[in-house]
Amino acid sequence: MALQLVTIPDKASPFRGGDFTDVTANPVLIEVTRGADVESRHRGAFVVVDASGKIVRSAGDPRMAIYPRSAAKPLQALPLIETGAADRFGLTDTELALACASHKGEPAHVEAVKAWLARIGLTHAALECGIQPPRTSQALEKAILERTPLTAAYHNCSGKHAGFLTACVACGEAPSGYIDPDHPAQKRVTQALGEMTGCDLSAVPLARDGCGIPTYCMPLQNLALGMARLADASALPRPRAQAAKRLLDAMASEPFFVNGTGGFTTEVILAARSVRVKGGAEGVYAAALPELGLGMALKIDDGAMRAAECAAAHVLLGLGCFTADEEQRLKPFLNPVIKTDAGRDAGAIRPTAPLAASSAV
Amino acid sequence: MALQLVTIPDKASPFRGGDFTDVTANPVLIEVTRGADVESRHRGAFVVVDASGKIVRSAGDPRMAIYPRSAAKPLQALPLIETGAADRFGLTDTELALACASHKGEPAHVEAVKAWLARIGLTHAALECGIQPPRTSQALEKAILERTPLTAAYHNCSGKHAGFLTACVACGEAPSGYIDPDHPAQKRVTQALGEMTGCDLSAVPLARDGCGIPTYCMPLQNLALGMARLADASALPRPRAQAAKRLLDAMASEPFFVNGTGGFTTEVILAARSVRVKGGAEGVYAAALPELGLGMALKIDDGAMRAAECAAAHVLLGLGCFTADEEQRLKPFLNPVIKTDAGRDAGAIRPTAPLAASSAV
């Protein structure tokens, strides 16, 4: 499905939905080889825009309709600060990073979320995100060996949900049902997300994210616009500009709490602190690039995260986000190698022409 | 990449490789919805042929170049019987099913492989497939709680490898290096695979499968041809026809040992014993349909197994392989539902026009 052209609220009315077409003709961005030949292919689109919505670079259809999923978390965390809730409860960078996180349910993540909830007078029982087992083999093994009862605090979105709950408590709202579109918590989130992405989210298709909160269908370039405005907040009202800076600073300062051990976001931010990148389910990545004043959004048509990560790494490389040393450090993401289960080389994941061209610019 | 037309050895020379093109234009076969809209798309091709290679049904490019991966296991197991090794060691249906298996490393799988290896005077140390952890949460939890040292017997291909080793022992060959293309074990397998699929495998690209053995690049319809000849062995030499029947019977009689608890192959065979279906990595499925005398092969361009399973189920449905009751039982594979982590409906995986049309024929 492709949507109408993005509109920038500063200059025109917001995006209000439009024609959906059933098939995109996005190019192959990522190839997966086995031996000397290509075995699998991932199509997709990416777009890089500045804070006015001007497209700086793209491949595929920038108007492609996507659900931003967890890639929008830094935008969804804005009300946590703007309501004054973060200050009232003295949230640190760790908690703000968790509010933007897809963490792995590692012990440090779970403990931090539990301590945060205790500080606002709640427990994991208030979280409505559902339960996920830990997402590293070490954390999973520990939980099994210690027969730890899994709770919603283990869910990759538990920090985002703790943020929603914190705003509810600060605003004196009953937290129950905070994941529903009509609850004040989601109304705040929807308003901030709509303003930042230049979308009237009351007019676009609405669905449920994996953690139960609303996710809104929007053109890919509108997600990029939201990230560009986080990165270059010069045209935003002062409280929002401050909130944006505080969230991006927290992500840079505590990348482990954004994506856990070995995660793409963790490793990219550890290697290159000027990059704020965030993934979402079904092959979505978004990035805010404060030094360049740009935002990026990317979607792999088939939803594969292996392709989304490699493509995101190459778009960032093409934008000059990495020094030679950082590029070397990020080689496992830029040039992933596929091994046999006994450790011999079997293939690779690699960018194809539209991405390589992007890198070469 | 697309390859030249298949050639059927009975009527012409075998396929010997050909032109590779970089992009396929396969249709979207599977859509993944979120709410009312499509969020992700999987392109691919399928083809159904009879034992003469005549195409009965297809979508996308039947000449698409694929690596059959584990979908070829029933073909790779033929020498285990044809060498006399299966009879010499009195292999039962359980072991023959394991020789065709991608199992889940559940306790019963591991125990059966260990007992089999002991019978031929070997242990898991002879397996060269590498190690994988168990692939059901229950089996993984048990292995962690009991601190069981994982061995190559847990690998999903350990039964196939035990079959290779059994043939080596029966033929008086040193088993070491049995995964290499030049070892007599793989020469036998390559010959049988080439004859059944109508390919000169010495002339096509060769790569390493995940378990280390050779995997050969071939047109999709040649994999389908190999399966059709398993299903309708009337034109095969008598020993091969007998071996084909014995393997298909073993798969029907012991589906748990082919794919483990909840596996697509296990559930489809349990529901419809006339179907022999087998998956392979990177979105491949193949099926031998003895009652129809047909073979099927399917590849999802991007390698996604969620799409390959749903597509395979709909191709089989379209061929009339399921009664109404069986169709009902296989609903979780025909119409998978996507839930939030708290259990609410969020989306679905569904076939698109080319598959639905196939089902409607």
Structural overview:
Two copies of one chain form a homodimer. With 361 residues, chain A is of the alpha+beta class. Chain A contains 16 helices and twelve strands. Chain A has helices at residues 73-76, 78-82, 85-88, 93-99, 107-119, 137-145, 158-170, 184-197, 220-231, 238-253, 255-259, 264-271, 305-318, 324-329, 331-334, 353-360; strands at 28-34, 37-50, 55-59, 65-66, 206-208, 214-216, 218-219, 276-280, 284-289, 294-300, 337-339, 345-351. The two termini of chain A are 29 Å apart. Mean pLDDT of chain A is 94; it is low at 1-9. Chains A and B meet through β1, β2, β4, α6 and β5 of A and β1, β2, β4, α6 and β5 of B.
Q: What structural class do helix, strand and pairing data of chain A support? A: alpha+beta
Q: Tell me which oligomeric state these chains represent.
A: homodimer
* Overall mean pLDDT of chain A: 94
Tally of extended strands of chain A?
12
Order of helix and strand elements from N to C terminus of chain A: EEEEHHHHHHHHEEEHHHHEEEHHHEEH
**What's the gyration radius of chain A in Å?**
20 Å
Principal-axis shape of chain A equals: globular
Number of helices of chain A: 16
The biggest beta sheet of chain A is recorded as: 8 strands, antiparallel
| Fraction of residues in helix of chain A | 25-40%
* Distance between the first and last residues' Cα of chain A: 29 Å
Most extensive contact:
A-B, 57 and 57 residues
Low-confidence stretches of chain A: 1-9
What share of residues are in beta strands of chain A? Answer: 15-25%
